[in-house]
Amino acid sequence: MRSAGDVSDLVNSGSARGRHAKMIVVIALGGIFLDAYDLSPLAYGLPDITKQFGLSSTMAGTVTASISVGSLLGALVGGWLVDRIGRYRLHSQCSGVYAGGEASHVVAARSGAVLWAAGRANAW
Question: Has this prediction a pTM greater than 0.85?
């Protein structure tokens, strides 16, 4: 098993037995775990978010659903970009955008809310 293609070939051939079958199950369940890990903080924080921002139950549902939709769109666009420009280059560019957004947050503490909003838009 040296690549994702090897796993795909093994699954498609139907010959996965023993250790290989267990590895495939672990990989599949690992993806489910990461999805749950990504969304579980919202489940614990939603009551406080709803209270702080005065959200109705409909708006709280909209916030929750938008996170899943954002994850889906991010995965689709990210996968396309990785195929187009490469994993390393995309990661480097995203790190630069993120660092720029975070740097603007540091400066925003002294410069006011307008710069903070620009930093948030940059980080997204």
Answer: no
